[in-house]
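Deliverable D2.4 — example input (structure tokens):
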């Protein structure tokens, strides 16, 4: 079953036939190709001739022979030489073509090409390409299926809490949804290995893959917790592994660039300064963690925090961790001039927990909205702080 990813399509529609390049970036197999196809379907519905639409997926064997920009230009020229009107170019996983930026810039300059590209590297728009086209491209980050998309795919209309725990275990990578049980885990593990091999090992010429795996497992064990490369260094040193702190930082950056993890910095809410070191990391999809190291009840709050973080990214927020004296606010979320504070916990199961979680937000005296998100069904909002049920939040039943 294929569901329409309207969240992304609706963001792209206003820019169709406009002089701006549409760029979709996200983890491998997170659904970028499907979104491109859905845009193509929309164009055809709007009366665009199919022959004016050129779609190339550089991961398909049909296009393996196109391995440089000259071959790509010749291919497109052959397809479009007798066409009139606007040409619609769709390039899927374009980072496979060396110096692709120059050709895209050339087509953009011609003025009669509407261009869409995807990539599995968060640095796709860095360097020369970003310099040439500053302000002339729209970047959309694509994430695995949200919980809302998950229940749409399975046509679920009730008992959302039970299905949420299934989502927690299975994750949201669309390419795994046709499988169940152990078969799904095998596909998810193969997908993880493919991302590591193609987007990290090969791209960065990594020799010690075992060491790369150790670092990623450390991150998975410590999601939603502050740590530094020094902490990883000290842990590896205990195992007699000799590796510099700078190399560890590089490896973490490789995982970030492959869209597998996200680094979140800390912000001092009193001085408004970004604090160096001791960042938090979150996974793009918790299914990878489940098949690599498993979840357990002791880290349920950290797992839930990861889900909330990704959902806030989907909603378009820029996110930092808030440091207020000795206290820490899970998320300080900014969108344009708007700010919200979000605290995450599994359950407000005791008076002590309620006091702790609300006290953190009560100490912030500005008038920006403050939220606590938990799995509790009862609404414990007080003193202007809104308490949200996690499942309701993920289904869009809140004002965030």
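Example output (designed residues):
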């Amino acid at each position: 079953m294929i569901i329409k990813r309207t969240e992304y399509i609706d963001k792209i529609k206003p820019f169709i036939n406009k002089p701006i390049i549409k760029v979709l970036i996200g983890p491998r197999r997170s659904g970028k190709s499907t979104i491109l196809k859905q845009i193509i379907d929309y164009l055809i519905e709007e009366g665009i001739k199919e022959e004016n639409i050129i779609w190339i997926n550089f991961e398909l064997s049909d296009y393996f022979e196109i391995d440089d920009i000259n071959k790509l230009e010749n291919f497109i020229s052959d397809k479009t030489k007798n066409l009139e009107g606007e040409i619609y170019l769709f390039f899927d996983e374009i980072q496979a073509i060396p110096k692709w930026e120059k050709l895209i810039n050339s087509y953009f300059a011609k003025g009669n090409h509407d261009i869409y590209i995807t990539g599995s590297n968060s640095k796709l728009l860095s360097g020369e390409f970003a310099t040439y086209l500053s302000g002339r491209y729209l970047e959309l980050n694509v994430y695995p299926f949200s919980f809302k998309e998950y229940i749409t795919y399975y046509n679920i209309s009730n008992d959302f809490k039970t299905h949420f725990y299934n989502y927690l275990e299975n994750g949201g990578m669309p390419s795994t949804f046709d499988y169940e049980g152990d078969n799904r885990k095998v596909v998810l593990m193969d997908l993880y290995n493919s991302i590591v091999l193609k987007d990290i090992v090969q791209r960065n010429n990594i020799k010690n893959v075992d060491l790369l795996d150790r670092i990623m497992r450390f991150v998975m064990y410590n999601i939603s917790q502050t740590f530094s490369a020094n902490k990883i260094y000290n842990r590896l040193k205990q195992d007699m592994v000799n590796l510099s702190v700078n190399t560890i930082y590089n490896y973490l950056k490789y995982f970030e660039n492959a869209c597998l993890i996200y680094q979140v910095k800390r912000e001092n809410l009193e001085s408004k300064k970004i604090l160096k070191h001791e960042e938090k990391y979150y996974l793009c999809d918790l299914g990878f963690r489940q098949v690599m190291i498993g979840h357990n009840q002791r880290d349920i709050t950290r797992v839930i925090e990861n889900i909330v973080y990704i959902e806030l990214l989907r909603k378009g927020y820029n996110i930092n961790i808030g440091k207020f004296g000795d206290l820490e606010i899970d998320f300080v979320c900014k969108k344009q001039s708007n700010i919200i504070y979000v605290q995450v916990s599994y359950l407000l199961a005791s008076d002590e927990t309620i006091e702790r979680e609300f006290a953190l937000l009560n100490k912030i005296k500005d008038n920006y909205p403050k939220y606590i998100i938990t799995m509790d069904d009862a609404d414990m909002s007080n003193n202007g702080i809104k308490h949200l049920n996690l499942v309701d939040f993920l289904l869009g039943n809140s004002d965030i």
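The chain has 15 helices and twelve strands.
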